[in-house]
Write a structure and sequence with these properties.
Helix content: 25-40%
CATH architecture of the largest domain: Alpha-Beta Barrel
Largest sheet: 7 strands, parallel
Distance between the termini: 56 Å
Bound molecules: iron/sulfur cluster
Number of strands: 15
CATH class of the largest domain: Alpha Beta
């Protein structure tokens, strides 16, 4: 049951508030709290890229600081605003001696997170992605501004609390010329905007217009600093163009005093994990951008299932040669005794708390699936109620197969230290670090 905005604000009023999760959910919550005069002390985030930095004008602490902060502020209220890792974080909070009275899960007040994929295709064809995987011929197109506004209006009407919406899933949102107006429309409704881009884009005018709208969060996905590594896995992209656009972003942020958090998401492969990573980290530090690493996965879900059932496509085999953690190793790392990690009892968070709206208004089971057909739970978001979509999701046949293979845990990358231990045993084909 969605208890809603009023009760959340009542819980936080007059308390020192920390937000666990400095990405889009946390940034949306900051927007809400600031609108209602609630003071936020800062963020907690276990990602070392964020620790010790200022985010949206607030300090971000590592989890190890919690006991000291709690001692200073015994009435502390921590809001866990990390939609897919809530249970993992709850356990960590208890381990840090924070009692259950001192933290609340944002999902108690907001039961659904929305993603609107405003563009149905991408300008690149990365090997790890549906666009580079071959297989099903995907429909192409873009969401019109009119359809988008109807989608946002329906989301707002059906939910008590919406603090952020992501405007990307499988598509490159900066290919949609209406993106500036789309960000502005969210802000008109008091909703934070989360964007993601490969930034291998030649449309400087659109980039400028979008940034003028001050989106709260912009993820930049890349996989190398030098062309040899980057071009190998971001097929069709140009890292020099990406880097020049990163410089432009810094220029716009400074010139217009924007709050946008730029989060560089570095996909780790066995040919980019030493000098390339080091140089990109240095570049991000110079620009004041965050850099987080993620082990490249085989995507989308349909392709992983084919691989696990003995029908890997040639592109999947080619991709596995470049991964630091294979599909089987990733599943073993993410699960505990063959179970679905921390999600074994609660089911799949992708199933429970997310709704994706494709550019053509169809609704897929979750963000990990790509194919049309049975993995679409509603043909037209505008014509299906929230309850109808939820019921159809619960009946989706692919979920049984997915959970049987423990793929929710794999897609979440649970138990990161185990992934690191596996990756450390693998040869690297990147140049060594500069001494
Ligand atoms: S840039 Fe992103 S969306 Fe585009 S092909 Fe690569 S991984 Fe897929
Ligand atoms: S069980 Fe698998 S297919 Fe179903 S929602 Fe979760 S991740 Fe998606």
């Amino acid at each position: 049951m969605n208890i809603g905005q009023a009760e959340l604000l009542t819980q936080l009023a007059g308390k020192p508030v920390l937000i666990w999760g400095a990405r889009m959910t946390g940034l949306g919550l900051v927007r809400l709290c600031r609108t209602h005069g609630i003071e936020i002390k800062g963020f907690i985030d276990s990602d070392p890229a964020f620790s010790g930095k200022q985010i949206a004008g607030l300090p971000c602490h590592p989890p190890a600081d919690l006991p000291e902060i709690h001692a200073q502020h015994p009435t502390l209220k921590i809001v866990v605003a990390a939609s897919t890792k809530e249970q993992e974080i709850n356990q960590l909070l208890l381990q840090y001696g924070i009692s259950a009275n001192n933290f609340i899960n944002y999902s108690r007040y907001c039961d659904l997170f929305y993603t609107v994929d405003v563009m149905g295709t991408c300008n690149l064809k990365c090997l790890s992605c549906a666009h580079g995987a071959g297989g099903e011929q995907y429909p192409r197109g873009l969401m019109t501004l009119d359809a988008y506004q109807q989608v946002i209006d329906k989301i707002v009407a059906e939910n008590d609390l919406v603090t952020h919406i992501s405007l990307y899933s499988w598509g490159e949102p900066f290919l949609n010329p209406s993106l500036p107006e789309m960000v502005a429309y969210l802000h008109q409704h008091g909703i934070a905007a989360a964007l993601s881009s490969n930034l291998s884009l030649k449309n400087e005018a659109l980039l400028h217009k979008v940034m003028r709208e001050n989106p709260e969060y912009l993820k930049v996905s890349l996989s190398g600093f030098y062309p040899d590594a980057y071009n190998d896995t971001h097929s069709g992209g140009d890292i020099h163009l990406v880097r020049s656009n990163m410089l432009r972003l810094r220029y716009y942020i400074d010139k217009y005093r924007l709050d946008t958090v730029v989060d560089v998401n570095y996909h780790l492969y066995n040919n980019n994990n030493r000098r390339n990573l080091d140089k990109m980290r240095e570049f991000c530090d110079e620009l004041g951008f965050f850099l987080s690493t993620t082990y490249a996965l085989v995507m989308p879900l349909e392709r992983v299932i084919e691989k696990l059932e003995g029908r890997p496509s040639p592109t999947t085999l080619a991709l596995e040669d470049k991964l630091l953690v294979s599909v089987k190793e990733g599943i073993a790392a993410a699960t505990v005794n063959g179970k679905n990690g921390q999600n074994s009892e609660a089911g799949c968070p992708f199933l429970e708390n997310q709704t994706i709206i494709n550019w053509d208004l169809s609704v897929p089971v979750c963000c990990t699936t790509f194919n049309r057909g049975p993995n679409i739970v509603a043909d037209n978001f505008l014509a299906a109620s929230k309850a109808e979509i939820s019921t159809a999701k619960q009946q989706a046949a692919i979920c049984e197969t997915c959970q049987r293979h423990s793929l929710p845990a794999y897609n979440l990358g649970l138990n990161r230290s185990r992934w690191e231990a596996i990756a450390a045993t693998k040869p690297s084909f990147d140049a060594p670090l500069e001494s």
